[in-house]
Specification:
Structural class: alpha/beta
Order of helices and strands: EHEHEHEHHEHHEHEHHEHEEEEEHE
CATH architecture of the largest domain: 3-Layer(aba) Sandwich
GO molecular function, one term: hydrolase activity
Keywords: Chaperone, Hydrolase, Nucleotide-binding
Catalytic activity: GTP + H2O = GDP + phosphate + H(+)
Shape: globular
Largest sheet: 7 strands, parallel
Low-confidence stretches: 1-18, 237-243
Helix content: 25-40%
Family: Belongs to the SIMIBI class G3E GTPase family. ZNG1 subfamily.
Bound molecules: guanosine-5'-triphosphate
Number of strands: 14
Distance between the termini: 50 Å
Number of domains: 2
CATH superfamily of the largest domain: P-loop containing nucleotide triphosphate hydrolases
Protein name: CobW C-terminal domain-containing protein
Oligomer: single chain
CATH class of the largest domain: Alpha Beta
Strand content: 15-25%
CATH topology of the largest domain: Rossmann fold
């Protein structure tokens, strides 16, 4: 019997979820900025075995974008408060999960079978996993089935060397997913595989070009089928001793830009090219949904690689403002800040 919609003693239905099969299977999808998490989610969600998956996304940047970039039933997607999920954990995840559950309970949301959490690319998965395992509210309603980490074949070697977040994400994953192998030289991929084996020898390494991966290889059976038998494995011991590095995002800066009126695409492209050429090494992420002549355009970039802009047929939501997020070191954000006002009148930093 599905007890998941029965109200509990406290009035919150999720407090009553103490049988194992009634708890919602959860997978955590970590991976550094721009490593292909959303691409993987979008591809997975097209798989019939993933039907009924709710998605919770967390972004580092003040203008919400990912909800519009996840090609999913918007009612099945919740955005967790801006910032780094692992640093602002208290409340954010509870809030997000409670919003999903209460919408389901009120009939405003179709039933869902599992939850995929996509934290921001700067998040440490350990405290998030700990919260699911230990927070009384979350632990009663959810069970952590998998920690997956996307690894950017093109940039991971540098990210592993420069960003401790990447090392942590790789080290804690049950399964690693190498992305962008279509862009990286075979020798680079071979060396990266050796580095990954050194950091996390137990994790299988799958490959996903444009997010194409077999859901059954990526997730344990109990994530896809909540009634499947639990494997006889030891609890995740690494989580017990782990402490979050609460100040870790201080070395990164972000700019969140908004424009109410349509942007001049040529001026935008020329501005972005200048930023990319001058600051590629420190430009960790560019992500935007822009209102330009002809309709909305998605812009994506990581370091010097800016993907071909994607024109959308329709706006994914009623918000038709241009939104752009840059994540980099402070000097790069300052340099960008000095140039955009002149190059792109109308594109304003969100205060
Ligand atoms: N060529 C190629 N591009 C990819 C692949 N996977 C992702 N991308 C591109 O890489 C860029 C970043 O991908 P996302 O899926 O948005 O990355 P993300 O990890 O969700 O990014 P954040 O949420 O900002 O951390 C996009 O332009 C994708 O189209 C791949 O396997 N091959």
């Amino acid at each position: 019997m599905d007890t998941s919609s029965a109200p509990g003693r406290s009035g919150h239905w999720f407090l009553s979820q103490d049988t194992d099969s009634a708890r919602l299977p959860v997978a955590l999808l970590s991976g550094f900025l721009g490593s292909g998490k959303t691409t993987l989610v979008n591809t997975l969600l097209r798989d019939p075995r993933m039907a009924g998956t709710a998605v919770a996304v967390n972004e580092f940047g003040e203008v919400p974008l990912d909800r519009d970039l996840i090609a999913h039933d918007r009612d099945h997607t919740v955005v967790m408060a801006n910032g780094c999920l692992c640093c602002n954990l208290a409340g954010d995840m509870e809030d997000a999960v409670m919003r999903l559950f209460s919408r389901r309970q009120s009939g405003g949301l179709p039933a869902f079978e599992r939850l995929l959490i996509e934290p921001s690319g700067l998040s440490d998965p350990a405290p998030i996993a700990q919260a699911i395992l230990r927070n009384p509210l979350l632990a009663r309603s959810m069970r952590l089935e998998a920690i997956v980490c996307t690894v950017d074949a093109l940039f991971a070697a540098t990210q592993l060397a420069r960003h401790p977040e990447t090392r942590k994400q790789v080290a804690l994953a049950d399964t690693l997913v190498l992305t962008k192998t279509d862009l990286a030289a075979p020798e680079v991929v071979r060396r990266l595989r050796a580095d990954l084996a050194g950091l996390n020898p137990a994790a299988p390494v799958l490959t996903a070009v444009q997010g194409e991966v077999d859901a059954a290889a990526l997730f344990p059976p109990r994530f896809l089928d909540r009634t499947a038998t639990a494997p006889d494995t030891a609890p995740r011991s690494f989580l017990a001793a782990d402490e979050a590095d609460a100040g870790h995002t201080a070395r990164y800066a972000s700019a969140s830009l908004l424009a109410e009126s349509p942007l001049d695409w040529r001026a935008f492209e020329a501005w972005l090219r200048r930023i990319r050429i001058a600051h590629a090494e420190n430009l960790l992420r560019v992500k935007g949904l822009l209102n330009v002549a002809g309709g909305p355009v998605v812009v994506q970039g990581v370091h010097h690689v800016i993907s071909a802009p994607v024109r959308l047929d329709t706006w994914p939501s009623i918000d038709m403002r241009s939104r752009l997020v840059l994540i980099a070191d402070r000097a790069t954000i300052e340099a960008a800040r000095e140039s955009w006002a002149e190059a792109l009148p109308g594109l304003l930093a969100r205060p």
